[in-house]
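Usage

Read records sequentially. Each one opens with the input sequence:
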Amino acid sequence: MRRIAIAVAAPTLTLSLAACGALGVSGSGSDASPTKGNDLTVGLLLPETANTRYDKFDYPIFKAKVAELTRNQGKVDYANAGASADKQSSQMQRMIDDKVDIILIDAVDSHSIAGEVKKAKEAGIPVIAYDRLAEGPIDAYISFDNELVGEVQGRTLLEALGREVDSSSKIVMMNGSPTDPNAKQFKSGALSELNGKVTVAKSYDTKDWKPENAQANMTEALNEIGKDNLVGVYAANDGMAGGVIKALKAAGVTKMPPITGQDAELDAVQRILIGEQYMSVYKSYPTEAEAAADMAVAKVQGRDIQFDSLTRDAVSSPTDKNVPAQLVPVTALTKSNIKSTVIADGIYKVSEICTSRYRAACAAVGLK
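and closes with the structure output:
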């Protein structure tokens, strides 16, 4: 058995990945709810709409997979919190009151939702944390390897900067929301690559991941640093990368420095094509959403061996240790591999990306 421990800044989240085979896992499935047939209801709570992935990919893919697994008898009760922790708390309470069979939650605030997670547990409703690690007695967790996301962003940014930069070269870090535990992991992973190789002149934890907040932060940073003294920007996701680019343009920058992102949003893919954004992190939403549906249905139906085989990793939150988990790998998306990632996986069609404004850039990289 090989164990890899990854420590993250407070509030501490530690990952322990156990490469032990399908059945050598933590969690025996003994807490599974009583076996149920295909007429089940899964509650799906997603956090916000600013990032287009949730309504465009996660929900429809998850819903389709649940239907497939239950011969079209299973239902998905879906709610989006619109970045409001209070609203999400009410949505989860409503699902508990409605006695759904299981809840998947992508928490707006991983700490504040712990009370509702406990209430669900007391009501006999299993809870799976989706994409973000919620606190409280969750039964399982599925997400991408968030430390790796940050490492990929940091490493690719350094590659873009090239040999001309050194430890005195200045970058800005536009990190995600302080209420999102993933943001802390992205930041930690990025810093593991960037520390000692460049200077982080300004670093922001961006409220609610909002592009307009990132734009305001970047405007402040440019006023302090100066647009000519900046070699690159670490932006934790594509929405904020867009805000950063707006601030740079408003400051009179015409040739963008390398800027990172995450989520492979359509606008970001197009920006990458024309050189406004250097990279994004492509995370296979079909893989994550379909695996989450597999986990949820297996848990409700009491298929413990399958559930354990889907949760071969383990994670720990500030409240609970060794939670069964599945961590999905990620890919650096640059101009060179658009075709082999988002197009090959059916996320976008060439016609969606290569509209008239981007046709020449598409042709230059062989997208036809």
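Summary fields computed downstream for this record:
- The first strand starts at residue 3 and ends at 7.
- The mean pLDDT is 90.
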